[in-house]
Specification:
The protein has 934 residues and is mainly beta. The chain is 6% helix and 38% strand. Helix 2 packs across helix 5.
């Protein structure tokens, strides 16, 4: 009871203190105390990083105290720890020794405030409208930078902002002189963004005072009058935007918080938190459902406006994200960042959290990309960099189109005129410049006018020649006996036997070719020869002939480990998340192609062909790559095309080859040459290492190219069981540049056995996986069943057909299989062993179920493989989310869900699909159909 009375008396004593003293000598927290705390204390005692647990940014933190207890004892200055530390009466002394502290007058103010009861502010703390810093006036005659510009939807009203000033210009309908409205407001300060309302009657400005507060304000565009202001941020604002219907205003800035305001009342609707850095830009989706934010924490976040929840974080950028937008059709999010890149994501998360897949990354410049604008026609965008470069990007494929005239000064903001023909850019020198935007050329697949049309030839049988005989015949009486460097003229279809007689020697053979003719050049080491041949095609002037120019569009390097010249798996490269399947990867003169995504951060890409030795492209040769070696994603430029100045290199690839790009000829050389013009061309052959001697013989063929293929089949070795199948693979060797699809058909298979024929080896691929499956009621057969396979393709308008072997003599074992795998939908029940269709859109993932019927006594783990577990899937369609252990059904379990992803590069269409359990040599499920939708 006594303690209770003492407590009540203590509270009454504290409450009585604010009344002490007259109004004239009363110390107020806001007017007198907080400026002292702000000057000497707040820097180390913020809410975000409070040293000693003490927050001095607001009165509530001061009253609460810190880790050592209360900081202020109302009415008793002598026992108030804050005052004692500032006076140096207790350790640690504050501020620290290297910082200035309050003077005697300020200490007296603190003591009097505590003595008077340490009362807090009446109501909310007022917004700090100015900083206590020296006023520095700009030099006379200095032009104020234009920090933001904007235009109305119809383009008739434009605005430009400089410090503390907005100038609005109205296009006059009746006179040549435009009407102007000037807004001058001492609270405007530095204006970081301008946005018009949909009807252009209002303009919204984002500004504030750095280190003090953020302010957004709506002004009338006709009168310039202030309509409403939104103050509530703790630091300056970088972005303020209207929602499409004008009902909301979204603001964000240095304090890392997004605030949604009611545009009519000015009330806060909700706050969105989660960023860890300054927020530089905001954008609504066209329907106002989604808001996206660009942040210094190297992310873009996607928010649902109505629910106020975060739907996704786009974390691919490697630097601060300066600007973000959503395309006018609402399909893509676009952002630019300090890592010199522009990125585009497919917008999928609208009302519920979903992954928004990255669809493009483009290296734009050697300096950060600071801003961009999407054209009103939604066909292109223009981006500006820190260096002043201005570049245009075509939206259909996100490819840079052209570099516009560079800026003479740093650009700050930009907009594109309503007709999408000009871009207006504001600069730090106080000017706004215009750059014309030429019409976008069609990106159709029609053949460019200057692209060579291939000419295929039939020149009959080759002429056999001997290099030594040719050389003797060209040596004239009285001439020099040393003619090793002389060029030997040969016919248009020849097979030459020769020898690199000494170290450093090369042999040269010249022949006549016409524009567009496609020639195959084969260089093989003779039997028991030590030669490692390399061939090069030279022009009449003796220079290597250019095959293609490759523009680097993304830079990278090898991580974790290097690669030898043959490996196809685990290509770990920096920034792999931004690469796409079928991209060309250039490193140290070799070009390969990405075939399969990594299965997570602990794995790498597989490159083509996905099995065997690595394929190379554009006639380049396989080579070894070191850890940390630079690598680039490249794209071939069209003939005569100019590379974009994006700060990345351009690689010239000549007609030269060391090792067969398709790895069919071992270390021997294979080169396809398309003559760029009529004329004489020379094949130069030598040893890659520069060696030579009597044991360095070769056979060189200069012949017309004959595109084709050579199929092979690996037969089934295990018997079939009821309700299961056996898989086998059909491969093709692609010859002389043939890259088309090959169709496989089976002959002689009884109707009661199920197969997935006809089967297609897709264009550019090496193999397809077939299955032959037996019905649950199958009892076996008498005699032998040995089907045959036929492969066919359309090559240069002619149907080419080849025998492809056989899956072998089929055997049957009537005993039950150890496991019977069955594929089923996740949301429906169907009869076992039926062909049903699993549909998946490009860029999306769907799920299905796999179950197993186990033979009595078999309870082992069942594996269906790893990255290749989806048998016969089309290129870009794969079983996803399997980690490094692959697709497993655990011991004793009977089923599991699995996921099938279709990459954005997958070709729409239907294809058979099955799984094979790794039991008893492989037991396959009944095939189903996977349909890839656009």
């Amino acid at each position: 009871m006594v303690l209770r009375l003492l407590f009540v008396g203590f509270v009454a004593w504290i409450v009585s203190f604010p009344a002490r003293g007259t109004a004239a000598d009363r110390v107020e927290f806001v007017r007198d105390v907080y400026p002292i705390l702000e000057t000497y204390c707040v820097g180390c005692h913020t809410a975000d990083d409070p040293q000693g647990g003490l927050v001095l940014e607001h009165y509530a933190g001061l009253a609460k105290g810190g880790e050592t207890g209360v900081a202020v004892t109302p009415g008793v200055p002598a026992s108030s720890r804050l005052l004692m530390m500032v006076r140096g009466e207790v350790e640690p002394v504050m501020p620290p020794d290297d910082a200035a502290g309050p003077d005697e007058r300020e200490l007296e103010i603190l003591a009097r405030w505590i003595e008077q009861g340490a009362a807090g502010p009446q109501g909310e703390m007022p917004v700090k409208r100015e900083l206590r810093t020296p006023s520095i006036k700009p030099s006379p005659g200095v032009v104020a930078p234009i920090t933001a510009i904007a235009r109305s939807a119809d383009g008739r009203v434009t605005a430009r902002a400089s410090y503390g000033r907005i100038e609005i210009e109205h296009a006059s309908r009746d006179s040549e002189t435009n009407e102007k409205t000037e807004i001058s407001d001492e609270d405007l300060g530095k204006i970081n963004s301008l946005t018009f309302s949909s009807d252009a009657t209002h303009v919204l400005a984002a500004s504030g005072l750095t280190g003090a507060y953020g302010r957004a304000a709506i002004y009338d565009t006709e009168s310039g009058a202030l309509i409403r202001e939104f103050v509530g941020h703790q630091d300056t604002l970088y972005a303020a935007v209207f929602s499409p219907d004008g009902a909301l205003v979204a603001t964000a800035g240095y304090d890392r918080t997004i605030v949604l305001w009611d545009a009519e009342s000015g009330d806060v609707v909700r706050r969105l938190t989660g960023h860890n850095g300054a927020i530089f830009d905001l954008a609504f989706s066209p329907d106002g459902t989604v808001l996206v934010s660009a942040c210094a924490d190297e992310t873009v976040k996607v928010w649902n406006v109505e629910q106020g929840i975060r739907l996704d974080t786009l974390s691919q950028p490697e630097g601060e994200v300066f600007a973000v937008a959503i395309t006018h059709d609402g399909r893509h999010i676009v952002a630019v960042s300090a890592d010199n890149r522009l990125r585009a994501w497919r917008l999928r998360s609208i009302r519920t959290p979903r992954i928004n897949p990255l669809v493009a990354t483009r290296f734009m410049d050697e300096t950060p990309i600071v801003n961009f604008a999407i054209a009103p026609d939604d066909q292109s965008l223009v981006a500006i960099s820190e260096s002043g470069s201005v570049k245009r990007v075509r939206r259909v494929d996100w490819q840079p189109l052209a570099s516009l005239e560079s800026l003479p000064e740093s650009g700050t903001d930009l907009f594109i005129t309503p007709d999408s023909r000009h871009v207006m850019i504001s600069m730090m020198n106080g000017q706004v410049v215009s750059r014309p935007l030429p019409p976008i050329e069609s990106s159709s697949t029609s053949r460019p006018e200057n692209e060579l049309r291939p000419v295929w030839m039939d020149l009959g049988e080759p002429i056999s020649l001997d290099e030594s005989t040719l050389r003797q015949a060209m040596t004239q009486p009285g001439g020099s006996p040393d003619s090793a460097a002389a060029i030997l003229d040969v016919d248009r279809h020849v097979s030459i036997k020769g020898q690199i007689g000494r170290a450093g020697e090369v042999d040269l053979f010249r022949w006549q070719a016409r524009k567009g003719e496609v020639w195959a050049i084969d260089a093989d080491a003779a039997t028991d020869s030590r030669l490692d041949p390399i061939v090069t095609v030279l022009s009449a002037a003796g220079e290597p002939v250019l095959r293609v120019r490759l523009q680097a569009v993304r830079d990278s390097y090898f991580t974790f480990r290097g690669k030898d010249s043959n490996q196809i798996g685990d290509f770990r490269v920096f920034n792999w998340e931004e690469m796409q399947l079928n991209d060309y990867l250039y490193a140290a003169g070799e070009v390969t192609r990405l075939q399969m995504h990594p299965r997570g951060p602990d794995s790498g890409f597989n490159v083509y062909p996905g099995q065997g030795n690595r394929w190379t492209y554009f006639g380049t040769s396989g080579t070894t790559h070191a850890l940390g070696e630079p690598a680039y994603i490249v794209r071939p430029l069209p003939p005569g095309g100019e590379p974009l100045a994006n700060g990345l290199p351009v690689f010239d690839v000549f007609y030269e080859n060391d090792d067969d790009p398709r790895r069919l000829a071992g270390k021997n050389s294979r080169l396809l040459f398309t003559a760029p013009a009529d004329g004489l061309y020379t094949v130069r052959i030598g040893d890659t290492r520069g060696e030579g001697g009597p044991a360095y013989g070769y056979r060189l063929a200069i012949r017309p190219a004959r595109p084709g293929f050579r199929p092979t089949t690996k037969p089934i070795s295990k018997p079939l069981h009821p309700a299961t199948g056996r898989e086998f693979q059909v491969q093709i060797d692609r010859l002389d540049g043939f890259d088309g699809a090959v169709t496989l058909e089976i002959n002689g298979l009884p109707d009661r056995l199920v197969s997935n024929f006809p089967l297609t080896i897709e264009a550019g691929q090496r193999s397809a996986t077939a299955v032959i499956w037996a019905d649950p009621n199958e009892k076996g057969w008498e005699g032998e069943i040995e089907p045959t396979l036929t492969a066919s393709a359309l090559i240069n308008g002619t149907r080419v057909e080849r025998r492809a072997g056989s899956p072998g003599k089929l055997k049957f074992d009537p005993s039950p299989a150890q496991v019977i795998p069955i594929l089923k939908p996740v949301d429906a029940e169907i009869a076992a062993h039926e062909n049903w269709t699993l549909r998946v859109r490009r860029g999306e993932t769907v799920s299905a179920r796999v179950s197993v019927q186990r033979r009595e006594g078999f309870q082992n783990e069942v594996s269906f493989g790893k990255e290749q577990s989806g048998r016969n899937a089309s290129q870009g369609v794969y079983v996803d989310n399997i980690g490094l252990n692959g697709l497993l059904i655990l011991a004793g379990a009977s089923q599991r869900e699995f996921f099938v992803t279709a990459d954005p590069t997958a070709v729409p269409g239907k294809r058979s699909f099955f799984l094979t359990a790794g039991v008893d040599g492989g037991l396959a499920s009944h095939p189903i159909t996977v349909e890839v939708l656009p």
